[in-house]
Amino acid sequence: MNATKQILIAEDQTDIRDLLALNLRGAGYGVSETRDGPSALALQTEVGHDLLVLDLMMPGLDGLEVCKTLRSRGDHTPILMLTAKSTELDRVLGLELGADDYLTKPFSIAELLARVKALLRRSELLRAAQAAQSQAADAGAPLVNGELEIQPVKRVARVRGVTLDFTALEFDLLLYFAQHPGHVFSRGQLLNAVWGYTHDGYEHTVTTHINRLRAKLEADPLHPDFILTVRGAGYKMRERPGH
């Protein structure tokens, strides 16, 4: 499977770029390399890689600008962002612009390979699920929970009649909750189910995404109606009214 997957590395530090390319090729992936943002955009347009590894700070265009540009073009290729910055602001900004995951330097090669594998697997599962849903007789049936309506195939969510703007991961997380109303999930369970991996120390990613979901979904994010905190256990989507 790996041999058919093409990965673009955009990293301006030669030693890091060489190390990443060496190990990704060793894992069986096809690899393209560049050191700046404009070249990354050109290569992605020309080749259409299966996954992008973008450094946050690059000449020309930084990783966030590359990510923003690709998403504005409708390119939802998985993006793994590499950053020397570990502040919550940087993580939230990257997620807002559509990055799928983060690694903060320094990181281990084993962890990088695990993240790459998980993002590719998640992308494949998403495509398979969409194909299966499109073939199902009831594929168009929305999930409804009070004022919340989700159309899984079209990947559209509305609350109180207003269409919401979610990143790919935010939508996947919301959909997972909506498919299991009333079920309580720990952050680790959500990380494994939605992101496709479990790694100690990265459960804050789930918290960040839930906060962002609430900011867009809830009338009062501090007193949510849909995604509820179960103290000491995790989170759940409220039961559907009448159930």
From TrEMBL:
Does this entry carry the keyword DNA-binding? yes
Which residues belong to any copy of the OmpR/PhoB-type domain?
140-239
- One Gene Ontology cellular component: cytosol
- Record-linked PROSITE patterns: OMPR_PHOB, RESPONSE_REGULATORY
State the InterPro entries in the record.
Answer: CheY-like_superfamily (IPR011006), OmpR/PhoB-type_DNA-bd (IPR001867), Sig_transdc_resp-reg_C-effctor (IPR016032), Sig_transdc_resp-reg_receiver (IPR001789), WalR-like (IPR039420), WH-like_DNA-bd_sf (IPR036388)
Species name for this entry?
Hydrogenophaga aromaticivorans
Recorded protein name is Phosphate regulon transcriptional regulatory protein PhoB
Q: Name one Pfam family in it.
A: Trans_reg_C
What role does it play? This protein is a positive regulator for the phosphate regulon. Transcription of this operon is positively regulated by PhoB and PhoR when phosphate is limited.
Biological processes per GO annotation: regulation of DNA-templated transcription
- Residues crossing the lipid bilayer are none
Q: Give the sites modified to 4-aspartylphosphate.
A: 55
Tell me which UniProt keywords the record has, alphabetically: DNA-binding, Phosphoprotein, Transcription, Transcription regulation, Two-component regulatory system
Q: Which GO terms describe its molecular function?
A: phosphorelay response regulator activity; transcription cis-regulatory region binding
Residue ranges of domain Response regulatory in the record:
6-120
Residue ranges of the annotated DNA-binding region, renumbered to this chain: 140-239
